[in-house]
Structures
1.
Amino acid sequence: MSAPSIATAKEVFDLVSDDLLAIELEFNQQAQSEVAVIRDIARYLIAGGGKRIRPLLLLLGTKALGFTGDSRIRLGAVVEMLHTATLVHDDIIDDAQTRRGQPSANTTWGASKCVLAGDWLYMQSFHTALQERNFHILDLLIGLTQQMVEGELLQMQKLGHLINEEEYFDLIFRKTAMLFKVSMQLGASLAGSPDAIEQQLGEYGRNLGLAFQIVDDVLDLTGEESTLGKPAASDLREGKATLAVIHALERGTGAEREAIRTVLADRDFTRVKHATILEILRHHGSIEYAMDAARAYAEAARQSIADLPAADAEAAKALRALQWVPGYVTDRDR
Amino acid sequence: MSAPSIATAKEVFDLVSDDLLAIELEFNQQAQSEVAVIRDIARYLIAGGGKRIRPLLLLLGTKALGFTGDSRIRLGAVVEMLHTATLVHDDIIDDAQTRRGQPSANTTWGASKCVLAGDWLYMQSFHTALQERNFHILDLLIGLTQQMVEGELLQMQKLGHLINEEEYFDLIFRKTAMLFKVSMQLGASLAGSPDAIEQQLGEYGRNLGLAFQIVDDVLDLTGEESTLGKPAASDLREGKATLAVIHALERGTGAEREAIRTVLADRDFTRVKHATILEILRHHGSIEYAMDAARAYAEAARQSIADLPAADAEAAKALRALQWVPGYVTDRDR
């Protein structure tokens, strides 16, 4: 059969807006605790927003497979809660001052309380997932979380150092693409799909997650603070080399390599300016190289599910929406 | 039937030494990760020792119920690993410099890596427990972990403030007694015991855990740094009021109450000396009051399982050992 056609943003929104609202309510309800500070931090994090792309993927995956049970709402909240838990701990580690344009939770409540709030969000995610009484779902979620935590530790060890593309892709798989992958696999698992279908959806999620993170890293290099909701070039300020930077390092002159090395080691733009780095990246087409890689993964995501049959009209719409998401991911400016 | 007689330390040791060694090996094996720093931190924590009282309880509980499967070794490692995960995060929060007489993990590797190492240990505990394919066991462990995390947060909120006995017992239940309780319940769950037996063993664990923490808190007040492996009166230095202190606060003169308040607020002994506080506690019999409470909980633990029938000779030995543990807990000096 031919590849499904691609939906518009409005079609996708209409398809899942009710479910996304239900997930928002579920997430709020899950963030209840008798301990006031947990409620406060959890509500702050929920209100802080985010693109909710992980729940969106889970919803579209279940819909494409014809599953409509309430579990999709619960697990949609779980993947967003797990994501939020990792952000809370990551922001402590990076000593981040802002997140999505607002003071980070660690700035507001202090690192100590946020260590525990992050722990609590992890546990609440698992507590909610446990209600499904499905061991495979728990295997996916626990395995995922270990990979994400290991990814963050690997990244810490590499801060300030030059890394190669292979190391970069390992890091972004663990830190981002695996949660995208699992969000899709959970949908297949809920629908009771055969392993082959779960793998196909997982492959879609993995490719999409890689594309998503590459774009995020490019936006971090090229975006303005007002759009990003955090200081421009935060990655370089934290000593993180991302794909475009790695590309330029492999092609630059001795002086250019030295300029990039200096920024990664200094973790600020005192000795070498941000504009100088951007000039080096532009000169070697490194931004375009990274965006080409992102677009290739986005296309691979589309191909991963191109031959999935649609059970009914709603499933066909969801498949069209899944064909739309990769373009949204690569074309966004924030 | 009459209450079982009480074993000697040597009998208890002979009964479980092979199993405790097997748990040590399992714990070591579980602490493997492809990320070097996780292995390093995990091995450091394992080598740092500890009384292994939680695995001991699980072993004695399963033995008393006639269960001899390998799961007891795996879950024995799980409860110790969970305990270790909480210690790692607690030490970050308390900014503890030492643990068991050695530099704390956060002092050695820094707080950031230890946030992630703690996360990883939590996940590895659940990963190992998941292998049992038993939802009830997962419910117990996840529920427990949430209570422990909430307990630590409640404690943080109360630092430097006066608390009453009710608040104190709620805190030590969450922070210590619940893990003792769950260690016993896991044994019953593995043995496939009816709910009533699981409740009885859980009650034993809860009472024992309360006794254990009360004694820990008394030792913190009265012990020497060389015996404790951490500075004397650490709790007062962290602004924590424990049972003997609460007792003295309720009975002391205005000046005595003010002295205690000052230490809790200052979190050091500059304005009021450690010896002054000890003198106030002795004058009101507060240490003895706390130890009496501990001994009462120890006795309640013994009574909780006094009527449990022994299936065979090995089970009878384990029951005798469980009658021994409460005395060990209240009579120790470290």
Note: The longest helix of chain A spans residues 195-222.
2.
Amino acid sequence: MIASRRSAALDELFALLRLPSVSTLPEHRGDCERAVQLLMAKFTAMGLEHVQRLMVRERGLPLVYADWLHAPGAPTVLFYGHYDVQPPDPLAEWISPPFTPTLRDGNIYARGAADDKGQVFAQIESVQAWMQAEHALPVNVRFLLEGEEEVGGESVEAYIRTHHAELACDCVVVSDTAMYAPGLPSLDVGLRGMVYTEVEVQGAERDLHSGLYGGAAPNPLEALARIITGLKSGEGKILIPGFYDRVAPPAVKEKDAWRRLPFDEEAFRRDEVRSPALTGEAGFSVFERTWARPTLEVHGIPGGFTGAGAKTVIPARAAAKISMRLVPDQDPEEIAAQFTAAVQRLTPAGCTSQVRILSTAPAVLVSPDNRYVGAAVASLRRVFGAEPVFIRSGGSIPVVALCAAELGAPVVMMGFGLPDDGLHSPNEKFALSSFYGGIRALADFMLRLTERA
Amino acid sequence: MIASRRSAALDELFALLRLPSVSTLPEHRGDCERAVQLLMAKFTAMGLEHVQRLMVRERGLPLVYADWLHAPGAPTVLFYGHYDVQPPDPLAEWISPPFTPTLRDGNIYARGAADDKGQVFAQIESVQAWMQAEHALPVNVRFLLEGEEEVGGESVEAYIRTHHAELACDCVVVSDTAMYAPGLPSLDVGLRGMVYTEVEVQGAERDLHSGLYGGAAPNPLEALARIITGLKSGEGKILIPGFYDRVAPPAVKEKDAWRRLPFDEEAFRRDEVRSPALTGEAGFSVFERTWARPTLEVHGIPGGFTGAGAKTVIPARAAAKISMRLVPDQDPEEIAAQFTAAVQRLTPAGCTSQVRILSTAPAVLVSPDNRYVGAAVASLRRVFGAEPVFIRSGGSIPVVALCAAELGAPVVMMGFGLPDDGLHSPNEKFALSSFYGGIRALADFMLRLTERA
């Protein structure tokens, strides 16, 4: 039943991928709106009901809701995904343009291919497959798609907090993670949390000539360098007082399972990270460092002169975009406060600093011992022909923690990406095998829920 | 004779200031060319001869040459200046637009007003005043104006090195410096040198998602922070091995004279630098730190995500624009080599770095004991009604060292700017009193050279 839709499903996904729905850039609001309209039209055409564009807050981006609730007695599945994408820069590094989806070597190349439009479309097509074949679904289904995942997800958070009845469900399915390896289906049971900040440093009141004032005037860029090196040691240890106090290490059983995963650290460095060496805290494995240890990263340092050539300016102001990934049981609000205090303390004389917290999310750890996770394991085993593994992800999906807490439903992270998909990077891709396998696994998952209900 | 031209001179200067001749930005080549044409037309109209546009190197910006050599037996003065300006960013901070010259409170506000179009125009108008009144000059005069002062001055350097006969002169007059204070005429006898660099750091081969790879992947922005703090201590000491080895301290007599200059360090901080505190090496006065001690400054850190909002990227590459100001007797080539070695040594594992040297210039120290400096002192005393002081400048004018070395002529730095002119900053200004006083002082200076010849 799915095979007949392979080509049509791909065409429709490509139409969505062509829309540069970059939520972080205001000039793309119109493209986000077009993505909303496309998804609503798709839901309506499939036969879903209560298709709605939900505008939760002024200047926010709309949520898209749809449901089909005609399977009395069967469980209700809430599918979550997002239609917004990261900015495509640096543009010059894309082999095919980011918003011209292109098939190469069995992969779909486009910004958002894996994160998250391709995965959202696998969810949608799994439902469409049932509707097309049976004109009905084995379970009740709700879709809740958002357009602010890459910018903090304020709207979906507000909506979930205040609409428990409208979102009532037995489990939440999130497809926004990756399989551990090609052919090795995975269930993600852990996500890191996040505190994203912007540190702005002010020195003099105006830009100064480095010849005339160099040696007496404060330099905010130099101050930021001192703040950054004061926040994190060269050995990868975060130096913020209290930062590690609540860190809960992974269970021995979980660490043992990670040790059994196929992993070649040298191949990971050479083929995936592609850098001269790996970095991070001594005494922790790569799995621990990327899944179960917190980090602090600098994403950009706006300010000063960044054009071609030479300008001898001491800028009045500069900023650093710095985020921390959190692990269980770190408290985002506490970390944000500790970070702010540390930055203030590290700000050199002559400069003042201001910390803005752009977003926060706690880490998530899902129990593998529930029937929804069990059904997912069975579906993945059947479709991908291999025993699924339990892994964590170093990324953050704030809505997962929120759904678990607010809706009281287990969250099943069935993701079909691959580790080298290049999320947030040039040449982001999504394998056709992931797309079609995802559709089949999710369709199978829905059926399995009724068999065991 | 000068009074009658006050209004006309200002109009013509404004026409030059309206041209955004930003040499560092390729898109402004046409504006640089328009500045050249304007200056050539002006020289021709004034009655100067051999007016030439000199294109020294491909893709360079033209030099403008003109002369008047009909004063046999009298000395020859070579006037040097530059028609190029720094970029105007940050644009939002300008009260009036940078290329719409505006009079406010006795000042001309525009990019380039003081650096260096206003000062070049004072030179030109001093010659025009003589030509208009006497149809002749008391001395022989050459003008050599360049358009690459803000980007390294390659063309003028190449031209001076190879055209000694065409530039033969008894003294060089450079008007590109500031008076010590309003009403206190100054002769600049020292300039710092410069090594301007761009340090590019590469980590992974592509941008990475900070969630998936944070904790294992190298971060070039963090690497740059470590390089910067490794190059310079929090106390302002440069940590590059060998960096201070050749530093020649100022003579005791010179330091004593600086101590007698009117200076209020707290007022300097509050009204001029306008920062919460001054910075720099302990044990050195502000004069020493800005005139006679080398410095290292960061001007910009391009790379990563610098737009609005949040992007969780670990960039593959980032760069830092870093310059050092040099003092006598540091050797720019040696410093460049020491810097490059230090950056390589400071580059953390996981990253590689590459240093590009964009420009170099040695420091300059001029002897105050020659007749040209003596004439300048007398002219400044007469026109400004105060005893001129000998000062240094922390800035760099590479052509000054070159003229002294190549043309064997003393360089007289008669500059008419003021310390708060905001060179390279928003709201750059040039006082009308500086403009008109400069014209009068330079016209007087030419006459004085004949009286004493």
Note: Chain A has two domains: 3-191+363-451, 193-247+294-361.
